[in-house]
Specification:
Length: about 180
Amino acid sequence: MRWPVTLKGEEIYLRPLRFRDRNQWNQVRAENRAWLSPWEATVPPIDSQGALPSFFEMVRMLNSEARFGRSFSFAIWHQRNLIGQISLGGVIYGALRAGHIGYWIDKNCANKGYTTVAVEILSEYAFDVLELHRVEINLRPENAASRRVAEKAGYIFEGERPRYLHIDGDWRDHITFVKENSALK
């Protein structure tokens, strides 16, 4: 497995963030702060971690995690514009061979199919390159747009997870969608 890697689709491509992406990333995140906050993970108050990492610390950490094969994070690009981010995290090998996908998209690019294509591209990478057996997408039940993405990308509803993740300041219920690698026996 090599890193960094760029994954290409017809209209979008996925590539890891670079230090020089900082201004674009900060601008897109600032413009979308209110739109994304109901769906964003937060740190529970019991964690004394402190402030979020700087952009440079985040990029270093994401690349380190990818080199160790634990998590693979990509910016979603349309032409030369950063329009979102997608990650395959919690990667476990051995008998389970699984991971989970999370993503966000610029509100100006929502409902154009880009997120679904990004999920399809990353799922293909998970199954064909990493040879994972199972990939999950966990989302808030009220997030209809994210549910459509999972379903259009071929993920199947598996069940509910009460108080699953700390999102927007509290432990929130999630629903789980799963896709399995039919090529693995």
